[in-house]
Amino acid sequence: MTIRDEHAAEQIRQNLAQVREKIAAAAARAGRAASNVRLIGVTKYVEPLLARLLVEAGLTDLGESRPQELWRKAEQLADLPVVWHFIGHLQRNKVQRTLPIATYIHSADSLRLLGEIEREATVLNRSTSVLLEINISGDTAKHGFGPQEIEPLLPQIATLAHIRVLGLMTMAALEGGSERARRDFAALRDLRDRLKENCPPEITLGELSMGMSDDFEVAIEEGATMIRVGSALFEGLAPSS
Ligand SMILES: *Cc1c(COP(=O)(O)O)cnc(C)c1O
After folding, report:
1. Confidence band for 143, pLDDT divided at 50, 70 and 90
2. Is 0.85 topped by the overall pTM?
3. What confidence tens digit (pLDDT) does each residue in 17-28 have?
4. What is the CA(133)–ligand 1 centre distance, in A?
């Protein structure tokens, strides 16, 4: 490694330690075990080298929000034991190449997409773990099922034999700061609790994927089991583009 890479590696180790400390503190405040919060390192802002350094620092769950970036990074990090999470909007024509790479798809945001995932997963003869993305803030620019829309769809989703629904995912409103984020996260948790009462047995809703760099502590306090953190892990490093 060059001196520059060594500096980057050290910075990433420090950032990761700091994020983990914050996770532990937030979990403690909520009376939860930090081990029930899975940290996903979002690498979309950085080159594969920095993503590699993050894995070497000990974080093997990585997330990407654009299919082409996922494919590229997965290829370049193929020698590492990465568990890939796809977290962005997935067009149906990108499903075929994405499924063999992504262990989790957090952003299942329409029935048509779920249908395409089912079709490709059937061809691959494997099942795919997904989270249903919910547009909890009602922001028209956001993808996701409406909170009112999802319950009547669950029986139909449950018939997709190659899809395992593990939970719900959301992003908090961009505006409004951490109190607004807290409301959105609490609303996702409440929705999950409500859906569970009438949920088909094929669908489990144990996972709540919510919280990013600016709001993951609040998300943990409100029950997040998966947090998707990018910029906080790469602070102090030059952006790639
Ligand atoms: C980019 C992104 C993140 C991470 O965002 P940061 O604020 O950099 O932590 C999390 N989730 C999704 C869906 C994203 O697109």
Report:
1. very high
2. yes
3. 999 999 999 999
4. 14
Helix (H) or strand (E) segment spanning residue 104: strand 102-108
Residue found by looking up tokens 């983990």 in the block = 20
Give 151: exposed, middle or buried? Use CB within 10 Å, 0-12, 13-18, 19+: middle
Q: Which atom of ligand 1 is nearest to the CA of 107?
A: 13
Expressed in angstroms and rounded, the spacing between residue 200 Cα and the centre of ligand 1 is 31
Please state the length of the chain.
241
Amino acid at position 240, single letter: S
Burial class (CB in 10 A: 0-12, 13-18, 19+), 153: middle
| Pocket residues: Cβ below 6 A from ligand 1 | 42, 44, 65, 87-88, 171, 212-214, 228-232
Q: What pLDDT score was predicted for residue 241?
A: 46
From CA 144, how far away is CA 100, in angstroms rounded?
23
Dihedral angle of Cα 28, 131, 227, 147, to the nearest 10 degrees = -80
Determine the distance separating the centroid of ligand 1 and the alpha carbon of 231, expressed in angstroms. 8
- Taking the centre of ligand 1 as the mean of its atom positions, its distance from the CA of residue 228, in whole angstroms, is 6
- pLDDT tens-digit map of 147-185: 999 999 999 999 999 999 999 999 999 888 999 999 999
Tens-place pLDDT, residues 85-97: 999 999 999 999 9
Alpha-carbon distances of 172 from 213, 218, 225, rounded to whole Å: 12, 11, 15
- Average pLDDT of the segment spanning 73-93: 98
Q: What is the predicted pLDDT for the residue at 4?
A: 84
Report how far residue 65's alpha carbon sits from residue 81's, in angstroms, rounded to the nearest whole number. Answer: 19
Q: What is the CA radius of gyration of the chain?
A: 18
The residue type of 126 is: R
